[in-house]
Write a structure and sequence with these properties.
The structure is a single chain. This protein is mostly helical. The protein contains 7 helices and no strands. It has helices spanning about 1-10, 20-60, 70-85, 85-90, 100-105, 105-140, 155-175.
Length: about 190
Amino acid sequence: MSVVHDAVLADVVPLDVPHTGVLGVVQRVMNALNAALAVFSAIAIGLAGLILTWEVFGRHFWGFPSDWQDEFAVFLLIGATFASAAWTQARRGHVGIEALGAILPPGLNRARRLLADLCACLFTGFFTWKTWQLLGEAIEEGTTSSSSWAPPLWIPYAAMTIGMALLTVQLALQVLGAPTVWERRR
C-alpha cells in the first residue's frame, strides 16, 4: 500500500498546470482530491476483478447463481474510470497525438495544446451538464437497472457526474494556467 500511496501522491504534474496564485491553490486542492480518488479507483478495479473471478468460480464449480456480480463490477469500473479521469488529465496521461508536437515550433505547439485543452474543456463541460440532468432524472424518477438485483441508477450516474465535473475543472485550470503562446517556460 505504501508504494501505491507514494506513487499516487507524488507530485508528478506537468508544467502547464498552475502552481502559483489562486489557481495554484485550487490545483493543489484538486491534486489532493485526485490522489484520493486515484486510490479509490485502484481499489475499485481490484475489487471488480475479485468479484468477477468469484463469479466465474462460483457459477462454474458450485453452480451459484450470479445476479449481482456483473452489475456490481460494472458499477465499480464506471466509478473507477470517471473518478480517475481528472488525475490522469493533470499528468497528461490521456491518449494524445503528439506527432505535431515534435515538429511544431514551441510557441505553435503551446497554442495547439491550449486549443485542444479549450475544446476538451468545452466538451467535458457540456457532458457534465448532461450527466447532471441524467442524475437528476434518475433520482427524481427512482430509476433502477433492469436486472433482478435492480440497484438504483443514480449510483453510476453520480460517479459519471462527479468524475466529469472534476475533469472539467482540471481542464479549466490547465486552460487558465497555460502560458501564453509567446511566453517561454522556465
